[in-house]
Amino acid sequence: MVLALLKRDLALATRAGGGFGLAVAFFLILCALVPFGVGPDTGALRPIGPGILWVGALLACLLSLDRIFALDHEDGSMDLLATAPIPLEGVVAVKALAHWITSGLPLIVAAPVFGLLLHLPGAATPWLIASLLVGTPALSMLGAFGAAITVGLRRGGLLLSLLVLPLYIPTLIFGTEVVRRGAEGGDPATPMLFLAGITAGVIALVPFAAAAALRVNLR
Amino acid sequence: MSIWEYANPVKFMRLSGAILPWVVVGAVLCTVGGVVWGFLTPLDYKQGATVKIVFLHVPAAMMAINIWVMMLVTSLIWLIRRHHVSALAAKAAAPVGAVMTLIALATGAIWGQPMWGSWWEWDPRLTSFLILFLFYVGYIALWSAIEDPDSAADLTGVLCLVGSVFALLSRYAVLFWNQGLHQGASLSVAPGERMSAVYRYPLYLSMLGFLLLFLALLLIRTRTEIRRRRLAALQAREIRG
């Protein structure tokens, strides 16, 4: 049942056009725009690279959030999923996982290449991948919560960003810190542990809040 | 006789109507008294006249945090016991809290310009207040976006719970991110760090004034919300009738 739902969501995301590619393309444009804004200097790009990469990943993740529940809510599949044998919390977790595979994972694969564009030091690249790998599941899960709250609204897109982005702040702080310390040769273990702690807490607790919001919207 | 009796809107309206004039008078007396008394205090030997903004800044900052805590408690009461007055009180408190946060940020900027030489610093306290303001804005926007009042109360209640956790988390995450410029707690009980009595007593009065001011605004706004709800019920009956 869990696997079937995951397969269905992945198939829908990839076949509906631009599932995997869109987030990465957006990420690329963002990373390409920054040098136009701040100048092509290595000295100017290097210190802000980790921050730009993380903010870019965060915004690219935001792009596809409203689709997590919207289509299922419109065509009534959500009602079926609510009465399915697995609890609604599980449905939320699986949908967040599908979102992470379609938009989080491609970003992680693309991030080292985009790091080159921003002159990120080679020593920081493993830390960039590791921090994204640990941090982005929390972004998808929190995004699923925001999507669950705004699913009943006709134009919830802007409101969704307003609600979700403040929740991303702790993940952003620790994620950037890991990459910055990796680039400067500091000790990235401490922020990495904080980042992992936030992700673990989010995955454990937020599905309950998201499922509660979904139940309200299904009434 | 328990506190839950006042969850009944009729009883709440009667009680709040009776105490509202007294709260308003107390709020005006204490706020005006505290600020005027604060204005008459001698100049600080280091900060000069700029110290006087503390009588607006500290009470507003205190209320900004406490109003969010009050919203958290009333949201929990709504989610657990389904008392409508509680949900409406949370709705009524949010804009007041957002304005208090703005007052704290604005007075801080006005004070910071001559003292720190800049309107804004990415200091942990300033940053966490900005984040708190964002949470207030999101909360208010969600209330206004949903039509069905009960769904709106439920969803904003859940958002308030999750938001509280993340506001607290951000408060400590920003400490990790940047070391601060802002001074420590204004009203420390530790001897030697205490504010001089000349400034402390007007500050206490001003804080009491802001508390009463919030209470007055909260009662007025909650009463308005209850009346609006009754009006909507009457109109619905009219249409059906």
TrEMBL record, chain B:
Residues 4-182 form the Cytochrome c assembly protein domain. The chain crosses the membrane at residues 12-40, 60-80, 92-114, 126-146, 158-178, 198-220. Keywords: Cell inner membrane, Cell membrane, Cytochrome c-type biogenesis, Membrane, Transmembrane, Transmembrane helix, Transport. It is found in: Cell inner membrane; Membrane. Required for the export of heme to the periplasm for the biogenesis of c-type cytochromes. Belongs to the CcmC/CycZ/HelC family. This is Heme exporter protein C.
